[in-house]
């Protein structure tokens, strides 16, 4: 009889642990930081030699994707209107890695010729206090032009901003 109870008790504990584990594994939602507006600084590429068209495409795609993801007030580098905004978050970006691929190789083999770019994104408050730092990668592996890597980066960076910051009135 004790063996039956003991086996039943073990089965009960086993069921309880595995039934509760998905609830325990759930992460609480990270607290989002209030950002009334975003100011995007020009993307720096001091150590990495980056073609001019990539630098411009990175910047323009990033601004476009941030606006598309619900940040209605996105200011460009040097915009004087940003200075008077309370809860302004400034995005500083530095290119950390770049591998120029080959569009022709991608079209022929679809396994070689990938273009990739790694950008370190630092979100700061207007006084320079760091709020969030993260490396974001942009890639084009199969089809598309090399500049598509800049679009991929911009989508991922906008997702990072959307997951960590909120604009009052938009949650």
Q: How would you describe this protein?
A:
The chain is of the alpha/beta class and 171 residues long. The chain has a single domain, classed as 3-Layer(aba) Sandwich (Rossmann fold). Helix content is 38%, strand content 26%. Strands 3-2-4-5-6 form a five-stranded mixed sheet. The chain has a two-stranded parallel sheet with strand order 1-7. Strand 5 and strand 6 (130-140) form a beta hairpin. The chain is flat. The mean pLDDT is 81.
Summarize this, please?
The chain is built from 4 helices and 7 strands; from the N terminus they run αββαββαββαβ. The protein is α/β, with parallel strands linked by helices and 171 residues long.
Key terms:
171 residues; 5-stranded mixed β-sheet; 4 helices; 26% strand
What is the CATH superfamily label? ABC-type transport auxiliary lipoprotein component
Please tell me how large the radius of gyration is. Answer: 23 Å
Distance between the termini: 58 Å
Contiguous low-pLDDT stretches (5 residues minimum) are none
Write the layout of secondary structure elements.
Blueprint lengths: L1 H24 L7 E2 L2 E4 L11 H17 L5 E3 L11 E12 L3 H7 L5 E11 L4 E11 L7 H17 E2 L5
Helix pairs in contact: 2-4
């Amino acid at each position: 009889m004790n063996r039956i109870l003991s086996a039943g008790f073990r089965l009960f504990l086993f069921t309880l642990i595995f039934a509760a584990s998905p609830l325990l594994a759930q992460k609480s939602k990270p607290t989002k930081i209030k950002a009334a507006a975003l100011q995007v600084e020009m993307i720096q590429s001091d150590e990495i030699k980056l073609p001019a068209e990539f630098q411009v495409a990175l910047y323009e795609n990033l601004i476009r994707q941030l606006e598309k993801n619900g940040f209605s007030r996105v200011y460009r580098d040097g915009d004087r209107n940003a200075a008077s905004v309370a809860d302004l978050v400034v995005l500083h970006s530095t290119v950390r890695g770049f591998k120029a691929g080959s569009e022709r190789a991608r079209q022929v083999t679809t396994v070689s010729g990938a273009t990739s770019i790694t950008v370190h994104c630092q979100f700061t408050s207007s006084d320079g206090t760091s709020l969030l730092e993260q490396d974001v990668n942009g890639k084009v592996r199969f089809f598309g032009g090399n500049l598509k890597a800049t679009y991929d980066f911009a989508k991922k960076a906008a997702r990072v901003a959307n997951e960590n910051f909120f604009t009052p009135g938009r949650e």
